[in-house]
């Protein structure tokens, strides 16, 4: 049986999102406003930095130049990349074990992420995943940010071009608010529910797990 599986990156296979949170928090601190980095993900996930930072600054009556904000956002990817080696980024629990097991069982594995292409490439090298991850897509490539299904569909298409049309396609992500988009990628959807939250619509989610190790219970393995 031929299987393809696409993973989200931040908080699904690694805690890379904390780099973005810290950089954005540091920018606001430079404006005299402190927002805990952990709070940024909870409050502003899936909004662009331009949108939510400008809104927060205006609400707090802090003067800023939009050109300055645009420059910060344009340079943010460079900062994130430079911090990959300095920051103590870790794979999520059981991530490497599961990726290796999927690879051993001939699952073709991809990554789809809102991160820039260079960061994804460096991430794959940094964690020695070059032999495991066969395709990846940055949302910048399709000019649509996640959770638009094109970000996943592009990774699936890349894998199909390299190998074959699969019998099964899976998408795995950790954020419920985006599950309604997952099923539009015509793949079986796996919700990595770290926070043990309630589903909003049962029909949008094929599988729910609380840890990556639970993939052993729902996917097909020969060993």
UniProtKB/TrEMBL annotation:
The keyword Chloroplast does not apply. The keyword Secreted does not apply. It comes from the Bacteria. SUPFAM superfamilies: HAD-like. Coiled coil: none annotated. GO terms for molecular function: phosphatase activity. It holds the Pfam family HAD_2. Keywords: Hydrolase. This is HAD-superfamily hydrolase, subfamily IA, variant 3. It comes from uncultured bacterium.
